[in-house]
Amino acid sequence: MIDAGSQQHVLQACREHDVKFVRLWFTDILGMLKSVAITMEELEHALTDGVVFDGASIEGFARTDESDMLMRPDAGTFQLLPWRPRERAVARMFCDIEGLDGEPFAGDPRGVLRRTLGRAAAAGFTCYVSPEIEFFYFRDAQETEPLDAGGYFDLTPLDSGSDLRRETVLTLEEMGIPVALSHHEAAASQHEIDLRYTDALTMADSIMTYRLVVKEVAMRHGVYATFMPKPLTHANGSGMHLQLSLFRGEENAFADAERAYGLSVVGEQFTAGLLRHAPELMLLGNQWVNSYRRLVPGFEAPTHATWSPRNHADLLRVPAMRRAQPESTRVEFRAPDAACNPYLVCAGVLAAGLAGVEQGYTLPPPLERDVREVGAAELAARGVSALPSSLGEAIAAFEGSALMRETLGEHVVASLVANKRQEWTEFRREVSDWELRRYLGTL
């Protein structure tokens, strides 16, 4: 239950800003944002008692015989929605999901991340995350017609999305989400906005808000924004590279200027955990059939569990340590795409890294070469494993993972596997345009 001080703070903010509606947000198991709007007159009741809803109608939540659930607003996430009218304004709060008995719901992605962060806190760590999130602008949702022909870091006239990015950044910052940088990405009409690092739970909420803001701004300008991982065959896909670090209080536990790459023993063990458990994590960060169109050679996306200090096609990168800023030491995890569930991804990634720390995993030497230049025998000798190359392979690796079951719980694992297996089955039955072009006229 929300404490009285936080409740009064929210109610006072609503009165000061003439708020009429409050949208209560949460995500389903796939990371799709869900929302119900209540009026200001109902807000105090919602803050005190929560709001009952039909969990059976939410993907991955409940069966019809146990459908009633409770959404409990998190007062710390109260923010006005800047794109809504200033008079009779609209605000939002993220919610935690409970059963009617008041117990946290095992299938709530936000709750899963909370539990995993609690495990890290018990070990003395706070997890910080900064994502680099890529996306495309197209004319509409029916066809992939780019708005420009720009490339990496291009400016006007090649970058026609600069005003869209500007408005998006201003909107995010108005909602209390700091932005580190924004720019045109490598593909035509592809863009990137990076969020400044914060704790993992706040960041997962921010990523959900970010995706909505990008789409809202695009829609207001008559274009369509998409986080589809690979919308264009011959261009880079859209990733969500995660910059990760663990802190003990104010000290970055990854930083050690006296060691190679500036990475402490804890940092090396965390990185080794990500490498070892990467195949099991792939379903969380790349949960769609289309996700695996991005993870192919030649497009700066990882295909093997490798790491290096500089290669942008490796799974993990350890950026050079700035000796004057040891707090900036971090590990970059490059597998996830921009259409994942950020709560489950952050939980899975943190659990894999903590496993490395707790069990003292050893970090192998960096590959230091493009994996395409290394033969299968050498990769095997180095213990380098290939990442799942299809949704089917990712399901199998995930379903067999004891770490994922321990971290996410049986409810989430079973629900996610069932949903993804259905998607994979439907895809395998589908005859594609490529097959028709390739075979219909010759066979």
Q: Report how far the terminal alpha carbons are from each other.
A: 66 Å
What share of the residues does DSSP label as strand, in percent? 15-25%
**Can you say what the CATH homologous superfamily of the largest domain is?**
Glutamine synthetase/guanido kinase, catalytic domain
Secondary structure tally, helices:
13
What does this structure look like?
With 443 residues, this protein is of the alpha+beta class. The chain folds into two domains: 4-104, Glutamine synthetase, N-terminal domain (Ubiquitin-like (UB roll)), CATH 3.10.20.70; 114-434, Glutamine synthetase/guanido kinase, catalytic domain (Creatine Kinase, Chain A, domain 2), CATH 3.30.590. The protein contains 13 helices and 16 strands. It starts with a helix and ends with a helix. Strands 7, 8, 9, 10, 11, 12, 13, 14, 15 and 16 form a ten-stranded mixed beta sheet that branches. Strands 1, 2, 3, 4, 5 and 6 form a six-stranded mixed beta sheet that branches.
In short:
The protein is an alpha+beta fold and 443 residues long.
Features of the shown structure:
443 residues, alpha+beta, Ubiquitin-like (UB roll), Creatine Kinase, Chain A, domain 2, 2 domains, ten-stranded mixed beta sheet, 13 helices, 20% strand
SSE topology sketch:
Layout: H1 4-16, E1 19-27, E2 33-39, H2 40-49, E3 51-54, E4 68-73, E5 79-80, E6 89-99, H3 109-122, E7 126-138, H4 162-174, E8 179-184, E9 190-195, E10 198-199, H5 200-220, E11 224-226, E12 240-248, E13 251-252, H6 265-285, H7 291-294, E14 307-308, E15 316-317, E16 331-333, H8 342-359, H9 376-382, H10 391-399, H11 402-408, H12 410-429, H13 433-439
Parallel strand pairs: 1-6, 14-15
Antiparallel strand pairs: 1-2, 3-4, 4-6, 5-6, 7-9, 7-10, 7-11, 7-12, 8-9, 12-13, 12-16, 15-16
Helix pairs in contact: 3-8, 4-5, 6-8, 6-10, 8-11, 10-12, 11-12
